[in-house]
Design goal:
The complex is a heterodimer of chains A (373) and B (170). By secondary structure, chain A is an alpha+beta fold. Chain A folds into 4 domains: 2-56, no CATH class; 61-119; 128-279, Jelly Rolls (Sandwich); 288-358, OB fold (Dihydrolipoamide Acetyltransferase, E2P) (Beta Barrel), CATH 2.40.50.140. Helices cover 28% and strands 37% of the residues of chain A. In chain A, a hairpin with a 3-residue loop joins strand 17 (281-297) and strand 18. With 170 residues, chain B is an all-alpha fold. Helix content of chain B is 71%, strand content 0%. Classes of the chains: A alpha+beta (373), B mainly alpha (170). At the A-B interface, helix 1, helix 2, helix 3, helix 4 and helix 5 of A face helix 1, helix 2, helix 4, helix 5 and helix 6 of B.
Chain lengths: 373, 170
């Protein structure tokens, strides 16, 4: 319900009719929401009064206004003119927005028609390259648009999206394909998991999340799966509507948009979204996995180069951080070259490392050396 | 420029009530940039016609009524959706429920600001002290403006809870 009031926090004088009606209806139906909004407004004013230097001496302002009403009238006229100018600008922006949107729709339409005409001979989109896929319990080699399909058999199915984009979906996965104006396809993953290679405008949609590549030459490889994370598994058993969605980028970078929030995931980064039936994201988690290529022992911390031959990240770990190695608490200095590690960030997404877990046991590897990389 | 007419009663009323009156106006939804303009209108009206206050009516009550009228008039003048904004202001009017934060809240607020994480404090200072817009800050932090509004809403909730705890403790 608080979503209905978002416009009131930002631009309450420029609300359109629908927004104003929605906000009023939300407030009329909920005294708690009224209280929440009132306290937001109060805190907004309190912060302004406390932090803005020009708001501190209000009694003096009134004294000045009484002392010189002519000046005050002049200021009033200025304020009125400024306010009218603001309204006029807002109206102009609104009109310009409509014209720009119409022009945009026209251009996109023309481009889409041209792209569709030029790409139609490419029979790739929707083609099943490997494996078995059924639509309405009938096996197909070409998946029709907007139809739910299921991967049957015991091995994954590879499906072409067009524009060199592909999906390798695990057995029992259910999904559907939808068209983009440039001839590429979006894959709506309803259940299961798959490894996606994204080019151009191809996207993966799952739940309320949408994943796209960065439109660069190289393909973005994304592993997407609906699953129960260990932490949430008991809750999910109690509430089947609660689902967990995991995206792992193996190469390139992907943009993930969920409920109007976007974030970019780089190679070896994982994002876990927890969703309810009402499409609310409960928590998000971000981190990355990889192999330690080099360890540099610095004065107060340890710098780890993590990744593979194509992509590497440097991760700084304070030496006093407690890490887990094979499930037991250990010293970061015990991390060695060749270890597979998983690094997790704090929810504030700063580079603060809160846990590092070595997922493989140690062999007779090298000890970290000062400055080695 | 004429010298201000000395009016100790009026000066005292302003000193004692301005903080609460401004919060009342803000609480009805008048944008923060215009709250002081509306409050000034209320006080100038009081200054011009003190004799209009009916006998037996408490000055704070009269000011609250004037603040309500001036806020509604403000919406009529500044928004096409003024009817709905006035209806919302009626729902938000604190006289129907809780009162605005009390005067000691400003001191408590300063204490609570100190307890925030540095990045949270910097965000609040950028907006409230240095006047940077939410849209600008959203762009800088690579977030949608709506998401940044919700970040600020959460910070205000945290501060409100902290102020309540601090005031109760003292």
């Amino acid at each position: 319900m608080k979503e209905d009031l978002q416009a009131l926090l930002g631009r309450r004088l420029e609300l359109d009719e629908a927004e104003a009606a929605r906000a009023l209806a939300a407030l009329q139906g909920s005294p708690e929401l009224c209280q929440w909004l009132r306290s937001q407004y109060h805190m907004d004013a309190l912060l302004t009064m406390a932090l803005r230097a020009d708001q501190v001496d209000f009694p003096n302002r009134i004294r000045a206004a009484r002392a010189n009403p002519a000046t005050e009238d002049f200021l009033g006229r200025l304020r009125k003119a400024r306010s009218q100018r603001r309204q006029l600008q807002a109206r102009m922006r609104h009109r310009q927005g409509i014209v720009a949107a119409l022009a945009g729709v026209l251009i996109v339409g023309l481009c889409g028609a041209l792209a569709w005409a030029s790409l139609r001979p490419d029979a790739g989109p929707g083609q099943v390259l490997v494996g078995q896929v059924q639509v309405n319990r009938l096996e197909v080699r070409q998946i029709p648009l907007d139809q739910d399909f299921t991967v049957t058999g015991s091995r994954p199915a590879v499906i072409s999206f067009g524009h060199d984009s592909q999906a390798e979906l695990a057995p029992s996965s259910q999904a559907s394909l939808h068209a983009n104006t440039d001839g590429s396809r979006n894959c709506e993953l309803d259940t299961g998991s798959g490894t996606f290679s994204l080019h151009g405008a191809s996207r993966i949609n799952a739940g309320t999340a949408s994943v796209s590549g960065d439109n660069a030459q190289a393909a973005t490889q994304v592993l997407a799966q609906w699953s129960a994370t260990p932490r949430r598994a008991p809750l999910m058993a109690e509430n089947p509507a609660l689902r967990s969605l995991e995206f792992s980028v193996t190469s390139g970078k992907a943009q993930i948009t969920c409920q109007q929030q976007s974030q970019v995931l780089h190679a070896h980064e994982t994002l876990i979204l927890e969703m309810t039936a009402k499409h609310t994201v409960a928590t998000s988690h971000r981190g990355f996995k990889g192999t330690v290529w080099a360890v540099a022992n610095q004065v107060a911390d340890l710098a780890l180069a993590v990744g593979d031959a194509r992509s590497q990240r440097t991760c700084i770990i304070p030496k006093d951080l407690v890490v887990q190695i094979d499930g037991q608490q250990a010293d970061p200095l015990d991390i060695r070259r060749g270890d597979a590690i998983e690094v997790q960030f704090a929810p504030n997404r700063t580079d603060l490392v809160v846990a590092a877990r070595v997922t493989t046991s140690h062999g007779p590897g090298d000890r970290p050396e000062d400055g080695s990389r | 420029m004429t010298a201000p007419e000395e009016d100790p009663w009026f000066e005292q009323v302003v000193r004692e009530t301005h903080y609460r009156l401004r919060l009342t106006i803000a609480g009805m939804g008048v944008p923060i940039a215009d709250v002081d303009d509306v409050a000034q209108e209320v006080y100038l009206d009081l200054s011009r016609g003190r004799e209009r206050i009916p006998p037996g009516v408490d000055i704070a009550q009269w000011l609250h009524g004037m603040a309500r009228n001036c806020s509604y008039e403000y919406f009529r003048r500044h928004s096409r959706q003024h009817r709905r904004l006035v209806a919302m202001a009626e729902l938000l009017d604190w006289s129907h429920s809780e009162e605005p934060p009390s005067v000691p809240s400003v001191d408590a607020l300063n204490q609570c600001l100190e307890r925030l994480r540095p990045e949270q404090r910097e965000l609040l200072e950028a907006h409230y002290r240095h006047g940077r817009s939410i849209a600008e800050l959203a762009q800088e932090h690579q977030r949608m403006a709506t998401a940044m509004h919700m970040v600020f809403a959460r910070l205000r909730e945290i501060l409100k809870r902290c102020i309540q705890t601090t005031v109760e403790a003292t």
